[in-house]
Design a protein that fits this description.
The protein is mainly alpha-helical. Helix content is 69%, strand content 4%. The protein has a two-stranded antiparallel ribbon.
Length: 105
């Protein structure tokens, strides 16, 4: 357990020490929000939208693929499709598609 906490601490230190200086020269925040070149900000938001949409669609497919499997509940497996799974699939797919569509504007 102690070894994993050391690895987790190392990952956090590397993330906060390495990722923050990369963006330090790109954007400058001074009480008025983010300043910088508009096309860089728009490109960054488009990339974030594309990756978030792809992740949501991946989660939707994963929800359908594992809809009858509940190994965490002592081997219990569902007998039929739950409507919550289908509704979750539809919601995640629609939101993911909207995010991907926004990234191409």
């Amino acid at each position: 357990m102690q070894r994993y906490s050391v690895y987790l601490l190392l990952i956090f230190v590397l993330y906060f020490a390495g990722a923050d200086p990369l963006y330090a020269n790109k954007f400058e925040t001074i009480s008025g929000g983010v300043s910088g070149m508009d096309h860089e900000k728009i490109d960054l938001l488009k990339d974030i939208s594309l990756y978030a949409g792809g992740f949501l669609i991946f989660l939707a497919i994963l929800a359908l693929a594992t809809r009858n499997r509940f190994e965490g509940f002592l081997g219990y497996s569902g007998r039929g499709d739950s409507s919550a799974t289908i509704i979750g699939f539809v919601i995640l797919s629609v939101i993911g598609t909207l995010f991907i569509g926004l990234s191409f504007l």
